[in-house]
Amino acid sequence: MTKEVKEPSMAYGKVYTYADYLTWTIKERIELIKGRVFKMSPAPAVKHQKVSRELSLQLGTFFKHTNCQMFTAPFDVRLTDKRKKSKKDEDITTVFQPDLCVICDENKLDERGCIGAPDLIIEILSPSNSSKEMKNKYELYEENGVKEYWVVDYTHQTILIYILENNTYKSLKPYTSEDVIQSYLFSKLTFDVKEIFED
Fold it and tell me: Residue 196: which pLDDT band, with cuts at 50, 70 and 90?
């Protein structure tokens, strides 16, 4: 007997959980945000991957001998419902895969990824990223207490940093390829922006 392959329905109003997510066997990468299914962009372009690699080298070296750990996609981050405060698979309705993330609380890590908000998230824009996708991520990270959020735009060679103050994101000045970037949360994390965008 052939085992039935379960796939999510895109029907309006359908709400899924992490328990559902674990049963899906589909080729496309997806994320689950507040119970709704979002298809991720096609495989990242070469430029996207180069920028991701350079960021990974910078952050990996910096965090190597610290209490924080850096992870790159694909890596599942699960967020719990603040009202239920349950870590059960059937109660989790948000699962996403940031391009890079840093987690300093080892209690948030398990064999399946991270449960709870990372301290730092970095997302690399691609031409296929929709404004709706970016808006959803921004609101999700802000609402769940991601302390620092970077948006890397390789097309325009800029990096935007948002820091959480009083539960609201505040934007710092844009960093360009002529600047030395400095993390607000990790003040000793600095590097030349041009190194990230060089071919």
Answer: very high
> What whole-number distance in Å separates Cα of residue 187 and Cα of residue 108?
23
- Judge whether 16 and 6 are in contact, CB under 8 Å: no
The rounded Cα 84 to chain-centroid distance in angstroms is 23
Single pTM value for the model: 0.88
Question: Tell me: the pLDDT tens digits for 107-122?
Answer: 999 999 999 999 999 9
Which residue is listed with tokens 């959980």?
Answer: 17
Q: What is the C-alpha separation between 117 and 130, in angstroms, rounded? A: 23
Q: Residue 77: which of 100, 60, 55, 58 has the closest Cα? A: 100
Pairing of strands 109-110, 113-115: antiparallel
List, as own/partner pairs, every contact residues 162-167 make where C-beta atoms lie below 8 angstroms and the sequence separation is at least 24, other chains included: 162/138, 167/142
**CA dihedral for 50, 163, 60, 40, sign (positive or negative):** negative
Cα–Cα distance for residue pair 161/190, rounded to 1 Å: 13
